[in-house]
Structures are given as structure tokens and as C-alpha cells.
Amino acid sequence: MRKSSNLETLLTRHDIWRGHSRSIIKDSLTTQYSELDDLLCGGWPRQALIEANFSRHGIGELSLILPTLIKHTQNEGLCVLLDPPYQPYAPSWASAGIKLENLFVIHSKCRNEWLWSAEHSIRNEIMLVAWIGQYKFNYSNLRRIQLAATENYQPAFLYNHLEHISLYSPAALRLEINNSKLHEITVKVLKFNGLNSSSQIQLKTHISDTKRILLHQLPVPIHNNHKNTDLTFSLNETQGYILNT
Amino acid sequence: MPQTVKKQEIWLYLHFPLLAIDAQFKESKKQFSQYPQAVITQSQKTQCIYCCNDAAKQLGIQEQMSLSTAITLCPNLHIKIRNNKKERLYFEQLTLIAYNFSPELIIYQNIGLSMELSNCKKLYGSYSELLKQLKEQLKEKCSRVFTGVGHNSLAARLSIKNKFHTQIPKNKELIQQLYSIKLNQLTLKRSQENSLKHLGIITVGDFLTLPSTSTCRRFDNEVLSKISLLTTQNDLQERYIAPKKFKDMLENPSGFYSKEDLHAPMKILLARLQKHLRTHQVNCKKIYWQFSPMQGQPKSMVIKLSYPCYGSDVFFTLSRLQLEQLNLPNSIERIVLYSEEFIINTNETLDFFLTKKYIKKIHFLDQVTAKLGTDAIYQPYFQAEYLPEKANLSADICSPKTSSGRHLPLQPLWLTNAPLRLQNLDNQPYWNEPLTLLRGPERLSENWWQGEQQRDYYVAHDSQGSRYWLYWEKQSKEWHLHGIFA
Do residue B276 and residue B352 come from a single domain? Predict the structure, then answer.
């Protein structure tokens, strides 16, 4: 009797999972994408390290977590961008809805500083979005971050280039992000406790539109001092030349 | 009309007979107090004993004895030359201990001090409890303290006993004590002293039994004013004003050999700072550390806080983090803690309004700054400028900025550190591969009426779906990559 109750207690631990059990994760944070929420059985798992492996910068890899960040910062939660690959363009982040007062950027000078910043941010209940960049981390390094994440109520996001992806990772959720076509990314689950890997979905990452004026309707020809300039536009987008007014 | 009854003041005089010894041997006191110790001074051509401890006295060493005689009596005598600066600093620390108990202090020649106790009796419940706590705190710093009690500071000083009072004598006893003070203790003129002696007036009590009319006629103002100082409560002597800065140090002649070794003395110094801040009801935003090796230049570090506080644990966490980044010599002999930027304590009200989240945020930011430096962390913000590189700014976390959102036309989340010049192959922008324009242009120019610099921004993509923000510069006729849509 006692043994079975012990087992039940053990099975209720959030870090214990049973294979083939596909159920809604009790403690998850909506991704704001219904397809992704379905794929992840409810959303981003809280208290977890989430590894997002992307093929290239600029395919829409950040748009995956942007709604989460917006909601978090709007609710006065702090967010740290650790070693972002480029400088965040503040007007765009603000325009997207991020509360800049709650957003901080940390640049580490060495591997140890990166690890300290990541762990320290997580342990201070901050939503961490980190880019591995040039550093190489072994399993135990990342395991430390994952352990810290289990003590935080927020998920921690780790962006890594697909070229540098390691075979083993302690992250609770590992995703692969590729672009399938323009304005669309494929999100593939590489590892997720309780879920068959290799499930994947397509997500639209369309850039929001602005007022458009067709090229032939422009009051003055653009680049009129380069009359011979033959700019190449993709055919299916040629209707979309815009002049922001 | 009801008469107001004036509360009777109680003054306690503290005398530190071994101050010179304590100041010199304080760090090693616990280890070597049983060994004979002496502080010497240089008088004319000879060195003589200025102060010595009980162990030395037991061997026959006395104050004013020449050093050579003292060494003959005790070859193992621990000797140090008197250091006035150290003594002063040490006395300041003792004064601060007393100041913790009573804000009304009178300093006497940097060797003793008087403190008024009647106003703080209520705080401790009784005089005996107050004296007990005072003794305990002084015991940690002083080998010996003698006390005197009186209704004013002079009376307390002149009625000093070779012990530490554990209770305040009753009023009757205090008056008896006052009466028994010898007049020669008042440092009167020789002629006056002789005159009083001739008349058989030895004590204050003898003097006060005389009719006042006759004493006024017979003795000059000096005697009368000194007697009146002893008997009245209107003590007009200058009160101690607590210094506006804090400086304290710890020394270890055998040296601290690792950063972990430094933690304990740092904690001690920070605890003293905390006490100082609480006593003066102030907070502090900045502290300075100095680590001095036996030889060579000292190393310093500054700890800054985003908001003033007095808690030693906050300062210690930040100090420890910053210490990890500091290159120290092999051995540190002296640690100095210094602070002078105090802010009047409004902490209670401030804490009440500050949310837990906010306090956590500033502690986190302070810790990151202490560990990684101020340039490692920033908060993005923007200003109303047309050119993206001018609009995009990074705020120091010590002076955070607020920027309200605005609707922007299509602009990316990432900006390259500087615009990257792209190749222009067959009139097509080229970055690793030809880029295809998706949307544009959006014309941005700065002060278009002054210069020719105009940029036409476009959204472009490469064959693998990455989207970029490019501009065509009218003046240079070149393509530049300025941002990445992520």
C-alpha cells in the first residue's frame, strides 16, 4: 500500500514522464499559435529549457516566441536577451508590443559569463532568451541551466544554429526551425517528453502589411536618376511595391 | 500653574585606559592578550613605555619606564610604536558603539566619553539592561573600560571608578559621590587650591556646606563656575556630532591568501557599516573597497546600488561578485571599507511602495553589473529620429529610460551594428547570394533640407527565406544591409 502511494507521488513529479503518454501538459504557457499549442500539448512547458535550433537568421525564428515575450513583458515580467546575434531595434520591439522597460540585453565576454548570466537570470525568475553563438557547451553545462529552469516558473529559450546542434541535450523541449517557403516556417519537434518526436507543423510568419501604393500609381518615379536601373522583384510580390505614406 | 518637573539626567563616563594597546594589538588581541604587550613613545632621545597590559605589569613593567629597562625585565615583550591615527580611528569606533546607545555624547580628549542615559532608559527597560548590553559590545573591542556616573558629564568623569558599573547608583548615592569629589581634581589655580586646603575645604561637599554669600566673597569666579558646573544639569559642553562618512579597516599581518579568505573580514566590515547606517538612520548607494598587499599598490573596487539601502547582505553579495573579477596580489594585509554618500533614510516608506518584483529586478540588475560590469547590460530604448541608427539607443541600467510604443511601418527586430555595404551585381543587391526585393521603398532621410543623404528602405529576401532590411543610398548609389527580420 505504502509502496504504491510512493510510486504515485513519484509519478506526479514534473520531471518524470512516461513514454507514449500524450496529454495536455498541466503547466504550460500558451504560445499564442493554436497549431503550435496543439503540437506542444498546451503550449510552452513551464519550468523547462526549450532549445530552438534554427537554420538561418531572418526566417522568422524569433516570431515563434514574440507573442510570449509581449505578454510576459506587458505583465511586468522581466526578459533578458543574452548574447543576441544583432542589436535589438527598439522601435520595432516597442511597436510589436514589447514593454522595453522590462527588456534587458546582456553581452557576455566569455563562456563562463554566459553560463553565469543564463543561470542567474533564470534563478531570478526572469524569462531568458539566449543565443549560444560562438560558445560550445557540454551536456553538464546545459543540464545546469535546465535544472535552474525547473526552479523558475517561466520557460527559458535557447537559440542555437542547426549547424552547431549537439546530439544530446538536457533541454525538455527541442525544436528545429526551418523555412519551408517565404513567410512560413516549419517547426519540428526533435525531443519533447511524452511526445513522439518528428511531429511538425507549418507556421505563417507573415510580416504585417502596411498601406501600399502600386508602383505605376506613384506620384513620381522612384530612383528617377537611375532610369536604367532594373531592380529585380519577385514576381508574385510585384503587386506589393509600397511607399509608406 | 502646574510646575514642570525636570527629568534628572544621568551621565555615564567611559574611560579606556588601554586604548593605545587595543588599537595596536586589536587583531591579535585574542591570540596574544596573555603575552606582555606594550606601546612605546619616543621622548627626546629615549624610547619609553606609554601603555602596557596586565601581563607586562605583572613582570614589573610600568608606564614611563625606558624601553631598555622594560626589555631587560621582559625580553619577550611585544612592542609597538604608538600610532595616533590608529588610536583616533579606534576611538571613533568606540564612540560609534556608544552612539548606538545614546545620541547625546561628549568627547573627552579622545580617551574617554560621557553619554547621557536617562533618555534611552525606556528603550532598554532598565539601566542595568542598558549597561549590560553596552558592556558586552565594548568588551569585544576593549580590554578594559572604567566608568563613572553623575548628574552631569563632569561629575560622572570625576567620580570614575576602576570598574564598569552594572547599575546606576540611587540619587542619594550620586549626591554623596558628588560631595566626596576632591577639589584638587578640578584643576584650579595653585593659589586657590592652597587657600582651600588652608581652610580645610578638601571636597565639593565641604565647599557646598559654606554659605553661598561668603563663598562668593572669598573665592573668585573660576572656583565658583567649576563648582556650579559640577552641581548643575545645564551641561553646555559641545555634543558629539556623528561623522558624515564611514571608514573602517581590518588588518591581518599574516595576510589573506585567497578571495574566500577575504569574505569573513568583508562581512565584519559590512556589518559595522550596517550598524553605522542604522545608527545614523541613513542609507547608502555606493561603497569603496581597498585591498592593500604587504608590498605594492592597493587594489580598489566600487560597489554601486540602484537604490539606497543599509543591508550588509546586499552589499556583500555584490562585493563578492565583483571581487571575483578583481585581480588581487597573492596576499592582502589590509582591507578598508569606505563610504560617504549617505541618503537620509526614507526606506520604510519606500519599501512599502516598492513592489517585490521591482526590488527583485533592481537586485538582479545590480548583481549583473557587479559581476559583468556596467557595459555588459543595457536596456534598449529609442528616441524620435528618422535614421534607425540614431533612433535606436541603449540606456544604462542605472538611468533607465521609458519609451512609449509607436506604430512603425515594416521594420525589423534586429539591426546590424552598422549598415553593411552590399555588392551591387547586375543592379541587384548581393549578400552571399542575390537578394530579391519584396517591398519598398520607404524613404528615410535626416534633415533632408540640409543634405543629400536619402535612403530608400526595402524588404528583401534570399533564396532560403531569410528576410532583410536594405536601403539604397541616393548619394553613394549603394545598397546597404541594415536589419534582419527574425
Answer: yes
